[in-house]
Specification:
The structure is a homodimer of 502-residue chains.
Chain A: E1 11-13, H1 16-22, H2 32-52, E2 59-65, E3 71-77, H3 88-93, E4 97-99, H4 113-125, E5 129-135, E6 138-147, E7 152-160, E8 167-175, H5 178-195, E9 200-205, E10 208-213, H6 236-243, H7 251-258, H8 264-274, H9 287-299, H10 316-327, E11 331-342, E12 345-355, E13 366-371, E14 374-376, H11 384-391, E15 405-413, H12 430-482, H13 486-495
Parallel strand pairs in A: 2-9, 13-15
Antiparallel strand pairs in A: 2-3, 3-8, 5-6, 5-8, 6-7, 9-10, 11-12, 12-15, 13-14
Helix pairs in contact in A: 2-4, 2-5, 5-10, 6-9, 7-8, 11-12, 12-13
Chain lengths: 502, 502
């Protein structure tokens, strides 16, 4: 037995604010350029949510101002629902606090986004965040910062101030790098316009408007509905949680009540498979039985596919319309795969192949990726979509407009399987990989067909031109021979070729 | 004024456990392969800390067992300090709880690592973590899991059980992918052996020992000392915090007491620069004055460089010894840059260039990166070290052993400026970029010199061989001519060339 050892171990817990103060790179605030871009992104996504939530077409104005070197003032204004006043301090001044959305497609990370911008602003410039919000017609303006050690908001000012309309404006001053971040921010807004064709996005830099894009459609997409979890997504934690408050339910009732795609008949089958008594009460289940229920639910094949009404794909017309508006391609084609499922989560992949001079000339198409209507600008090489794209032999496909081309691919799901921390790359469940491969191939074939048609039509036009010249000559010669008016004969021949030809 | 709008916004806060349950990819647990690798890494790093903390040479045994498909049992055993019993439940069952280390070089992320393995294990296999620890001679075994919603430990079992020696064994069962993770784990352990030459690392897979590496040196490095913050690292949050409890201090006393490299004279100069009264009490400072103090401290040039005793570089002999032990190179050369400073944080970069058949043949050397003695295996392309490596025209340098070569580069600092969330890539403060560029060039020149020497020595050896053959012939001929014993003459000539030649 060894003797006593002195250690200087001293244990303590830290608040979530403190954690992200120390590990800000985890949330995309690792350096001034990232932080500038991430601040815009978090605020814009909050604004889009706030508008869509009340069925209003978003008009989001981003203003960037670089007052002194290394400092950027970022302000984002929307015409959304405004915020309930009681919630403003915590929503902006408490890390891991936010509005719940239930199980449906959503942007962003619950409870982290906007508070990180406040935290980062106060660390780097010691400035509070300004929030001017109007909810149900009464406006209010706040200035607040975060008590980092205790993870709670400190309201510095709070006064009534009316706005023209409901909505929210948030302004922060951060240690940033506008020059380096600006190209990314412009890309981000342009691509957000593609993923949100019903929104108008405006960017002002030092009081000059440098981008004003969308809307490309007049109607708002239907809001995705909140659904119950699918049984194949039920890890033991989820099973345990869905049992809380249902201790007096029979196993049967519990399954039907807690999950989608489980009716009386399916519940009976699952319970028969488990070998448990259907009348057994949830409160009487042992821990091992709960674990077994999770493992059976996850592997049971006969459930229907998860409900896809909790998804909000962009849609053919809006997506093509937005790409048209932003890039003006000469050719574009839309297709989609799904609704499909990965581990109990519904997903849809939409793709557009487009060609035209706005895109770079390349052997492989340029790839623009989106997840749940958010453009993914970083970590492309780790993404399953990028990797799958490289598996297709694009050289086999003829492409219209001399290989100036791009593919837009939009993945949506109630859960996006992000590869790693940055939420910029999708990982590779087999279902997603095979669906995207099939989708890429269909896009390739469609483009190829169009290229052939283009080729054919070029050939045809050449032959028509040749025929026209010949016929005009023949008409002139014949007229000369027969004493007819040669000029009139030529005009008549020419008129034969006017109007629409293929 | 618009009328009332119904929103279904419903606000709430979530616990840190809940946050990382939902966003596990942030901590490196995004898929079964990552999770398997991350679990090993977190447990091994905990073990190394626990040993070094009591000045014991670490012996860390990793055991991996794949009982059924998609499940891995991971157990890591060390001979460290053991854990204080009161702290075991929170240290393993509460996210954002951990042992404090003060301001010095350290591995890992405070409060996240080991609890993530527990969280992930219980979500995927519903198994508790097993911790068997012996601290000051009394052993104790725990089984516990995390109450995710409340972020607190639930101890399932807890009983006395003696071990052979102080130390800790942790075992978790996780949903993992051993086959895919194993190559990474082996790389990780091999490189950890390089970064921790004083440790012995053993890997068992399904009861077979497949790796047993180190120790390469007999002595433990000195533990880095805890230092006060350097004034150039003082953001406003840090200034505010260091003022807590010092409200009755004069500005003068506060600066001297709170920061390193600030004595009476320097404090006076800073205060003169600020234009404040040196006798002004900390408690009387306004918020704007505090912000101004931070901004002056950050930009004041005349402070001495930060104390580097809070760093623990690997060192020439240990690093060369470990590379020798693991790769057996034919040639290796060590150099370092620093202590230097980035934004008030001291840093040292050490580098070794090595060549030999163990390394791949390439135009550019293979690069092995370390930060604070942790190997960085992912995101190489984003790393400032990788980017800087590519700026060097390696083709200009001759390299011994036909360009089978590698560079090992170890960065250490009280704060590593990670690029992004995954903590696998170092970002690019100018000071780090220029120091690493200079270091790479020095390594290139050293290797080049050695290659020339090798070349020269090859030439010399050829000439000696030629001379030897000629002399032997001359000896034989002369002996024949003079009637001397030709064979003996030849042997005498040959003996002239025995022994050490260059």
């Amino acid at each position: 037995m060894s003797g006593p050892e002195s250690t200087h171990l001293d244990f303590s817990s830290i608040s979530p604010s403190e954690f992200f103060y120390r590990n800000r790179q985890m949330a995309g605030f690792g350096n001034p350029t990232h932080a500038t871009y991430s601040t815009v992104r978090e605020l814009v996504e909050n604004s889009l949510d706030a508008c869509e939530d009340v069925g209003r077409r978003p008009r989001v104005e981003v203003s960037l101002e670089s007052t002194k070197s290394n400092e950027v003032i970022i302000s984002v204004k929307d015409n959304g629902s405004g915020l309930p006043y009681d919630e403003v301090p915590s929503a902006f001044g408490q890390v891991l606090y936010g509005s719940k959305y239930g199980l449906r497609q959503k942007r962003g990370t619950f409870g982290l986004g906007v508070t990180m911008t406040v935290l980062y602003g106060q660390i780097t410039t010691d400035s509070p965040v300004m929030i001017h919000t109007q909810h149900n017609g009464r406006g209010r303006e706040y200035r607040l910062h975060i008590d980092i050690e205790n993870n709670c908001p400190v309201v510095e000012e709070d006064e009534g101030r009316t706005r023209n309309e409901n909505g929210t404006t948030v302004a922060v001053r951060i240690g940033g790098d506008l020059a380096r971040a600006l190209p990314r921010i412009q890309d981000y807004l342009r691509l957000t316009s593609i993923a949100t064709p019903h929104a108008r996005l405006i960017l002002h830099v030092d009081n000059e408007t440098i981008l004003d894009t969308g809307p490309w459609v007049k109607t708002l997409p239907a809001q995705p509905t909140i659904s119950k979890p699918h049984p194949r997504s039920a890890d033991t934690e989820l099973v345990r949680r869905t049992m809380v408050g249902k201790e007096a339910y029979s196993l049967n009732e519990y399954l039907i009540e807690s999950f989608q795609q489980v009716g009386r008949k399916t519940a009976d089958e699952v319970i028969r498979f488990l070998g448990y008594d259907p009348k057994k009460l949830v409160g009487d289940l042992t821990r091992n039985e709960i674990a077994r229920i999770s493992s059976v639910l996850k592997s049971y094949d006969s459930f229907n596919r998860p409900d896809s009404s909790s998804l909000s794909p962009i849609g053919r017309e809006p997506l093509l319309g937005a790409i048209d508006g932003v890039y003006g391609p000469e050719y574009s084609f839309y297709t989609r795969r799904g609704p499909l499922e990965w581990e109990g989560h519904p997903f849809i992949i939409e793709g557009v192949i487009a060609s035209g001079s706005a895109f770079p000339k390349r052997e492989e198409p340029a790839l623009y990726r989106f997840a749940n209507r958010v453009p993914l600008l970083y970590d492309a090489s780790d993404d399953v979509l990028t990797k799958t794209l490289k598996k297709v032999s694009w050289s086999r496909y003829g492409i219209p407009n001399g290989r100036h081309w791009a593919i837009f691919i939009s993945f949506c799901s109630t859960r996006v399987p992000y590869q790693a921390a940055g939420k910029q790359a999708i990982s590779n469940p087999a279902e997603i990989e095979s669906a995207s491969l099939a989708l890429f191939r269909e896009l390739g074939r469609a483009a190829s067909k169009m290229a052939k048609k283009q080729q054919r039509s070029k050939k045809l036009q050449r032959r028509i031109r040749e025929m026209k010249t010949s016929l005009e000559m023949i008409a002139r010669f014949s007229a000369n021979l027969t004493g007819f008016d040669a000029e009139r004969a030529e005009i008549m021949a020419r008129e034969m070729f006017q109007g629409d030809w293929p």
